[in-house]
## 1
Amino acid sequence: TFLLNVKCLSNNKFENHSNFFKINRTKFINYLLYPTLTSLYPKFTHANTTSWTKVDLPVDSVLFDIEFTDPECKHGWLVGSKGTFLETDDGGNTWVPRTFANLDPDEELTYRFENISFEGQEGWVIGKPAIILYTKDGGKTWFRVPVSPKLPGEPCLIKALGSESAELTTTSGAIYVTNNAGRNWKAQVKETIDSTLNRTISSGVSGASYFTGNVINVIRNSEGKYLAISSRGNFYLTWEPGQDFWIPRARETSRRIQSMGFIQNDNQKGIWMSTRGGGLSVSTKNFDFESISSFNFENIDIKTGGYGILDAAFVNDKDIWIICGGGIVYNSTDKGKNWTKVDGIDKLSGNLYKIKFVNNNKGFILGSNGLLLRYQ
């Protein structure tokens, strides 16, 4: 049996508990059969002779995030709904399931791990119901960090910064930083997004006045700058370190915003935006986060048949991947001038939600029903 020690962090001290991550026996048998099972799955070939390969997983849950702990991207973690917590030591070819040993099956299914982040061997995981886990040894031992019931909104994004430090964002736009492994958190913004919007009624953002919702699809780039989309998709917001408040920005199209992100995780490269019905556009490079003016976007011509673009990955200056509703994947190798549909993926059982390249040569697509695709 594989065991991972779990500890609880409370009252500013680490306290030992008899909690362990362990492998379910049935799932372990599936793990032993991986070499046979994975050889049966098809490869979906890309024009450059590389391909997407379906990875067999012993879960049927929705997958939310994937992260690796080493520069070679060999050891990593995969998280999802129904308490899904998987580990790999071979770059994502095979995955070992981990579960809370002290939770009964019904209680375990209530946890939905949505985001994971590592900086070296230090890692953080957040999920719902509100839970924060912290490790400082690559995942061998996990500490549970208390979550205050007074926290505005629910944790939705966490970024490991190393040296017991992390940055946490909530669905209300609150941003906190810890420098002591979660014992204390310091607020980075003076008020939540709804307070900012309701205070600045004359901001010129349509639909922002008397805002009572949350934000979705919060994205942070390598410089610590943020994008966030309102829950209704009618406007978006930006924030960068040093600012007291989020800045709301109106969309420049009648279609509601579906998703956004930083191009190559770099503010200097610009940002991309997808809108309902399959629209895709990119901003001018090196936009000013201090300006209250809307950013200028240029449309990218792509025909998705009306399917919305759920996520995109700008691997380099030319190579772009997008995933759409219906399990459809498109690729462009010329900055979006021409697009090629990857055949066969849309016939798989499951929807696709997230695409993430951990380096220029290795990427993953995460979906429902335990659907994981690996590109290398």
## 2
Amino acid sequence: AARRVPMSASTSPNAPASLKGGIDGDEYTVTPEMIAAFERDGYVHIPGVLTEAELAEVEEPMMRFIKGEVLPEGKDLCDMSGAVDRTPDEYTVFNAMLPRRYLPSMQGNVFERRAASIARQLTRGKDMSIDYDQLLAKRPGSPDSIFAWHQDLAYWPPLEKDPATATCWLAIDDSTVANGCMRFLPGSNKESTLRKHAPVRISKGRMDEESSHALATTLSPADEASVRTVEIKCGDITVHDQRVVHGSGPNNSEGWRRAYVLAFRTKEMVEEERRLGFSHSHNDEFNWDAFHAWQEKSDVE
């Protein structure tokens, strides 16, 4: 993938200092326009969060997972396309949950520090903590490397704590329509109830709730007409909240589409999740209990 040195997020060199976004040491200054977009649409594109040199701090450990040098336990290594009959070197949506747990040297890297400042600003100063992280890599030329439409909250327990979330999705490669960039349904974050989700099934006998950790919801024709595809450069990020409907298309290109996800939630929510034994590991017993709890809540409402 092509590399380039990220520039300031400001579009005008003469913009007031308070409106200029961009890297500031271990932090990143978010503009008022970015905050407004995040609150309005449920997501925002933030350019130039890491330089080319800084990107290596994430890319190098990521490749250790893809090459099989670091192996997450059990279901924390899986294929999020929904396939369950493949080996890791055949996964089309290579997914490694909680890489910071399995490779502790990743903790405290420059992206982690900068993303923390972004999460704090986008939530207008809330006390945000890292909830989980995730490596996602779409194999070249893989037409089934689709990440189904979903809302992140469908994967998580319906708790009463402040649910504010800022999920920072870092592009390791340029992310394009051709290689399966992120797609969002803007404004779906403002819907009063969570949409119905169901486990992804590819074909009969190949998928069931016990083997799948991919959920999907459906879009109406009106939804489809409102979808935005968000192409971003390596070193850029998108940040989305817990309710916006999103997904991604297949990688039909000749190169990998790699991303590192770092999700922040309020400190009180993270503490409550852990108290219940929910860590976002796919090995948690609580995982499918969380999904079913949302279905039961929806049925009651």
## 3
Amino acid sequence: CFDEFNRIPIEVLSVVATQVKTILDATIRFADPENRVGEYKTLPAGTPPLKVGDYDFFGQEIGLVPTCGFYITMNPGYAGRTELPENLKALFRSCAMIRPDLAMIMENMLMSEGFVTARPLAIKFNTLYALSADLLSKQAHYDWGLRAVKSVLRVAGKLKRAEPKVNEEAILMRALRDFNTPKIPANDIPVFLRLISDLFPGLELATNVDEVLKETAIKVSRKNGFQSEDVFIAKVVQFQELLDVRHSVMLLGPPGAGKSTIYQTLVACKNVDQPKPLCVYEAVNPKAVTSDELYGYMTLSKDWKDGCLSIVMRNMCKCWQPYTSAQTDQWVVLDGDIDAVWI
């Protein structure tokens, strides 16, 4: 199964089409027992789940089990994606997908997180995201789909378990507000907060802020010669909150907005009063190297050649120097312009 198949360059897709056609032709040929050799002639006709013979795959003899299959997933029309060539399209049967029923998914996930009034809360949740997609400005980084829903529900479940006696509506409202406001520009904030107040009338919970981290960020900022502006400190705290529920986080903004300073300040906060750094990072400019140099690639002799990210990730995972098992946070930072090729 090949995921995001149309990310592959068109030159490679043409080669893939030839390879797939070779395997399919062998499957058709060996479906007739008369075309098989030796002991394979006695096997049932068609496509039994057994090896039915060997065929030439670009200079290599490979055994064929005719029940093998090829499956690809793709999102047509996205930036950085390739249109599949016609000879490759002809080898696959297309299957269109429909949008998931978010309300039902929300209801089930809310129940699994311990919410008793899951159905009405799911309706409000779904309504908020549908209205947000329609009424807020169109931003490239906005995501009102299933990935964002699951992240919010994980946060809501965490809050529910921390405060089991608090009103469930208030808990979900806080999760929706606190998780989404960091990614919403200033001009959209009033609209979003008004939507929340309309869907959750009469509910008002203070933002759950990590006061210790906030105070530490203020001290670190002053020590580094920065002004400890409320907005900047809030972004440092929000960055940590997102890291708690996401494997990776994007800091978006124009040049000079303080993106690099935000993550560097959070690193410094984690290392305050520590004899050795507990949080380390490796910064890479993804636009300074090619895609192959960034991720790694397979050579013509079928040897793997490491890229920047694979080298750093392996060193971090295996705790090779300068990384150690005592470090609680190890980050790979891709500090540069975003495009559809490397992301």
